[in-house]
Structures are given as structure tokens and as C-alpha cells.
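Margin note from the TA: students keep mixing up input and output lines. Inputs are the sequences; the output is the structure of the whole complex. Example:
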Amino acid sequence: MNDTKTNNNSLIGQSIPRIDSPSKVTGKAQYAGDIILPGTLYGKLLLSTVAHAKIKNIDISAALALPGVKDVIVGKDTPCIKFGNWRLFPNTQDELPLAVDKVRFIGDEIAAVAAITPEIAEAAIALIKVEYELLPAVFNIDDSLAPGAPLIHDENKELTSNISLDRKIDVGDIEQAFKDADYIREDSFLVHPHSHAYMEPCATIAETDAEGRVTIYTSTQTPYIVQCLLASTLGIPENHVRVVKPAIGGGFGGKMELRTWEFCAAFMSRRTGRPVRFVLTRQEELEIGRRRHGMKIKSKVGFKKDGTIVAKDFEAYLDGGAYNSMGPTATFLCGNFGAMLYRYPVYRYRGYHVYTNLPPSGAMRGFGAPQAMFISETQMNMAAIDLGIDAIDLRIKNAMVTGDKIEGVTTISSAGFVESLEKIASATQWKEKKKNLPPNKGIGIGCYSFISGGVFNWFNTQYHFSACEVRAYDDGTAHLFTMSCDIGQGSDTVLRQILAADLGILPNMIRLTAGDTAMTPKGDLGTWGSRVTLMNGNAILDASKKIKNELAKIVSVKFNLNVIHDVAFADGRVFAKANPKYGMTFGEAVTMWVKMNRGEELTARGVYTPRDKGLTTPAYSFGAQVAEVDVDPETGVVTVEKISTAHDCGTVINPLSVEGQLEGAIQMGLGYTLCEQFAIKDGKTLNTTFLDYKVPAAEDMPQIVSYKIDTYEKEGPFGAKEVGEGLVIPTAPAIADAVFQATGYRCKDLPITPEKILKSQGKI
Amino acid sequence: MTKVNVKLKINGDPYELAVRPNRTLVEVLRDDLHLTGTKIGCKTGDCGACTILLDGKSVCSCMTLAIEAQGKEITTIEGVGLSYDKLHPIQEAFVNEGAVQCGYCTPGMIMSAKNLLDKNPKPTELEIRKALSGNLCRCTGYARIVKAIEVASEKMYNTQK
């Protein structure tokens, strides 16, 4: 949409160090948990100890009587307004800030205390007595869907089972298509839940002013969403809530909803007149934190003898846990991702979001794609063997290319997938290595595609999807206001880089204010779905264009330029492109504009909303990854030795940041595949420390190499598209395929453990 | 629990305060002295976000009682470098090499790196990775952190590998 192909600005493609790094290496960056305000009270939550029960009685008298306790609240003290990110469908909003009649999982929040010290708050929590009437509970999809299973949300009279929501896609005649297939691959899979394990446990501190307006500093990647949902649960106007995003210690999708502690901090700050702070412990994070959906998936793919895919039938049951959270979106997206990567002329998807008495699953990096593509990639590898076609050749034969369409869903506006496959094949010497594998060594492949932000609007915002404001000053500087949140992915740097490149000034001439709902433009949905670079980048270019239009007028008048002259912005100057001496500094141009406008400030608002871009996203990334592993034949331990990736993210704006996303994604993908797994017994999470929930450490990492495939995405700023999330997808199928080559064990039930490998070989 | 008086020497400065004997050093640093550069990621000694130096040796300040730290030199991230113009070479390398993403593990990482380079000025890549085994990062995959420590080692000790 932006005519920026001709922009040769050297800032694009430059590895500019992160602007926020100096404050982080000195320990000065303030995270929500670092903020203490005068008079702060310390909050603590009482969590359910049972998985499914009616609440008969809650006795808070002893807690209230404890000296130093300033407030104790239970569900009935609150306005009892349900919330959830799917505002467009209020019936999906199934969560209350505090449980009222019923608890639905171990960890469901029942009460909250605010006290003068954290120790007193903790002691008070221990004094609250809850009487439960136990109900039967279900801890997996099969039990939840079995006849006679307890209804977890029996208050919702529209639900007749524990399926809270379903999604159907039907493209073409599936029955006929399978009749025409020469070979059909049909498999069942299980994929497990996965913790975000961001290093910063969620923290929040809220204060209320004399007129009852709330300001909340909170670890969130979506300040606008928190503002809206907090206001609605408190029963006050949105404009009475100010959400400020401090530094965020990682999000990965886990910090994009209103959470109970945010409500409790705000609600109790209104009741007590004092700031109230909550900081979760790691134990609480692992017990009640959101997670990637575990799923039970059946997939059937039909091929012609030559490898051409004729149809796919894909059925996914998502273990949603006790509440919808972001599960409806995951259910929708899983179906879309099931249809990605290859041309499926006929496609059927049935997705079911299922309640269980487990901690709710939510949004997590990749959001339905790691599960869907673990299955599609594994089946491609299995089909390749059965069809006698090399796994990469089979992929190239079916790969999506620029211009492909998924009927009624989307058009692929740029794709470097075939190029990624060709590159990875040659760079890793795929065919040669595969033919000559030494004992216990394996090489495997997995691919990915991901969205650059969502087109869907289940949050039902009335505003533009992305918005920013740019102010230009007479000293040659600018100020960028954005609601996009840097949660570690580097958007503060990249967005400043985009604006600086377009205005022709240096990045350090731009002040950036991000994520403060009282200051930054309303209606930017924040950071999720790999949307920021494309969507906010486009909003910034929109604002920048307006600023440049104004300044071009100044130069044009001052130098009496013929109307056919183009005006350029570079090196801190504004000038006639064909004759640079007709020009002035950026600051001088702004000064003249301000004089001409009798003291007005030069500001512009920029917006971006994807329109007529299908139902999913304006642009897709693509890539292919090869893993090389060694499996110890005695212990079954998998060592990943090398991971090579060829990927297409459009124009690279900041190579250092792109590489950082890739390396971090591989680490997360490696953990998902091999070592990260919740141990849950009867609904109780047993591994609630990083000793037991094993995140890969520095020594666990393989050698990493990457190859960038050049494409230009016309919908993206300077040709850029997503890079943050998609890269987490291919690692599991690539490692699983390599483990198969090394051992003969084909994983259809993540994670891959030594036990499963040895069992498959009859060694245990 | 009766409070006891403790004298702590933190980044060269003397501090005197009364604490309960079971109070951890990280609680004293963050909550009592507002030295919030030291982070809390787990409070069980598993993540390393709270790493500080005690007499030059890296420890988890969440696993150290404040009373144990008496009479010892305590160094926190604030003692490594606060001025943006005069960053420590390790801090500078973390910035320039892209070793920082969300930054929450960064202070602890830098303390572990300092502990390593103070004792072993020219570590191998494997030695660096082993030295970071108690520090978890969820964003970076560690590659650029390892690289930053190599660059800092070269700069500090003029070593070329």
C-alpha cells in the first residue's frame, strides 16, 4: 500500500541496537513489579484448592480481623461482570474476576486481600475459610465429552455439552476428493500444553484518584484491551481507566487479556484509596498461568501417485481448560493454519473448543499453528516415504506461491516458500546427508507459515486496528506516540527505525511514548499475532506521509519549485529531489511551517486497518527448517546438534532483531519438543518451579544457522512482514522427523521423551 | 519474628537496617533499599534473574539471607554501571550484540558474565554456556548473550580468538 520501493534509505536493513537496551543492562528499566507508590498495599489471591465445586460459604472474618489487613474481597463484593476478549460475542465471555457460585479448576481465584505488607497479606489468605460442595471433574477432552460428563459452565443455557464453541470450514467436495486420491494418509495426534514461561511473572499496581479514576501499571502487551475490559468489569467509563505499560519481561501471548489481579488491584484501590499491588509468584504462574492449547487432532490427507495433494480433512479438539480465554481464536486459527503451506484444493476443518477442569489455555506464540503444522508437517514426512518422493521435493510440488488463494479465507500476497525449501535443501546438503546417515544420527525437516496480524475483530473495536501520532518539532526532532508494546521483540526500535527512515532523520532524534492509554492513540490493539511491524508500521508511514506533505509545501514555496518536482527527505534535510541545494534542514522546515500556521504544532495521526484482505491476515511469512540430531541408543536422550532455517519475512528492517527472534523461537520450539511438559494429576499441577518445568538453558542449544529469502510484501511497510511467531512452529516437526530418521520412532504424541523412544524400540 | 540489625556493604556503600532473620537478600535489595535492578523470576534459585556477586562470587540473592551477607562485599547490577556514557564493557557488548530482548534476565546474566570473566578472562564458548547454566532466558536462545560475553572478553582483556 505504501510506495516505498524507491526509498533507498540506508536505515532499513540496519542492525540498530535496541533503544531500550541501555536501560535494561543497567537495571534501570522499570517493570511493573519494580514500581512501589507511596502508601502501597500488597495484594494476594486465594486460589481454589479443588477442581470443580460449588462454593457453599466463604468466611473472611478472621482475615479481616488480622491487624494490617486493609481489604478482603470475594466475588459477591464485585459488580460480577463477566469478561473475555471476544466482546463481539458476549456469550463467550465466561470469566468473572472472582468466582461467585462455583470454582472450575485448581487455581480458580476466589478472594483477594490487600494488606500493609506482603507477609500480612499472605497470612490473611491462610485465614480465609472456604466450604465447597465437590462436583465431579474432568481432566481431559475424552472425559469432558463423554456422556454424563459434568457441565462445567451449566450457567450458560445455550451449551448442551462442554464444547464451548466450534468452527467449520468446507471447501469443495471432500468425499469425492478422497475417492479420487491414490494414497491416503490418516493419523491421530496429541499435542501438549506449553507454558509461556516469560521470565517476568505478572505484576500490577493500581491507584485511584480523587474522582475515582484508575491508573494501572501492569505487565500487558495489550493496554487498550485491558483498559476496555477493566472499565467494563468495574462498571465505569473506559476513559476513567488509564493503563500504563512499563517495561515488559516477555509476553509471548500470555499477557494479552484482563487478568484477575488487574481487576482486584484496581477494585481494591478504589475501596481503600491506596495503591494496591499484586506480583505473582512463579509457582502461581505455572499453576494458573495461561498456556498453549493441548489438542487432540485427526488428520487425513489424500495424494495422487505423483505427490499432488487432492484433499485434507482436519479435525481438532482443543483442551481449553475451565474458561474460554483466547481459545475461540485458537479454534478459528488452527483451522486456517491447517490449510496453509500447501495447496489443498479441497479442505474440511472441524474445530471444537472443549472445557475441562484444568487451568485455561490462551494465546501463545504461534497461536494454533504449532499444533496444526506439527501435524501437517509430520504427515508430509510420512507421506513422502510412502510415496517414494523426497520430503523436500514433495513439499515443493505442493507449496503455496504468491497469488494462491484459500477460498473465502485469504490470498497469499507474497510467498518465498519454494525458495526457502530450495535454499535449505542445498545449504544443508539434505539429500546427501539423508542418504549417508551415521548410526543414531538423524536429519529432519519442518516448515511454517504465519500471519502478519489478524484481520478478525472479535474484540469488536470501533477504532482503527493500528494508530499512531507523530509530532514534528522546530529543533529537528519528532515524537512518536504508539500503543504498540515492546515486550522484548524490539518494536520500540523497529517502529522508530521506520519513522526515522521515512522522515529522513536519525532514530535518536525521535522520542517514543508507547502504551499509555491516556496519551497514546486510542484503538491500537497492541502486540499480538505478529501484527506490530506491518500494522503499526503502516500507521506510522501514514502519519509520516501527512507530515511530509506539509513540509514539502514549505520547501516548494520557499524555493519556488515547479510543481513537477518531487521533494525528498534524507540526512535530516527536506529538499528538491532533482536539485538538493533547493532545500533546508528538517527543523528549519518545521519552524517555517509553524510560523506559516501562526503557532500551530505540526502533528499528524496515522492509521491502518486491513480492508478487503480476506478473513485472516494481510500477509504471510514462510520458511523451512532442518534439524540434525544425535540420539543416545542407551538412554534415548536426544541432542539437537544443528538447526538450519531458510525464511521469508519480506524486507528485513533490523537484521539483529530478526536473528534474535529466530534464535529465541528455536529455543522455545526445542523446549516444546523435548523437555517442557506440565505434570498434572487430578487437575493439580505438580511441577511449579523451573527445576521441574524445564526450560532450555544455554548449554542445551544447538548450533543455529539461517538464510534469509528475499521477498517484498507490498502490503507491508518497506516490504516487511512477520517474523516474531512463525519461527516457533517448524522446530517440533523438524526434530521429530530427525528423531525418526535416527531411531525409527515417529512421534505423534508430543513431547518426545527418552522413555517414548526406548519404549518404541522395545528397550523398556 | 524479632528483627535484627544488619550492616550491609552494597556497591561500596554502607547500609544499616533492621530485618527479620528469614528475610532474603533480594527482598532487602528490592523492597527495603529500592535497588530494583536485581530481578525476581522464581524465588527458588532456578532462574538466576536475582544473581548478584557476594565477595566476587555469583549467588542467587533469593537463596541468600540478608544476615548471611553481613561483612561481605555485595555487588549488584547498579554497581556494575549506571551511567549510559560509561557502561561496563559487558553491558556495552550486551547492547551492541543484541543480547537483550525483554531484558528481565539481563541484570542476572551480566552478573554471571562478570563472575566468569573476573575469574576466567578468556573463556571458551562451552565455558561461557556452562557459566550461564543457572541463568534462564526465554527470549534470545542465548546465542547473542554468548557472543556478547566473547566480545566483552576481547575488549576487556584484548584477547583475540
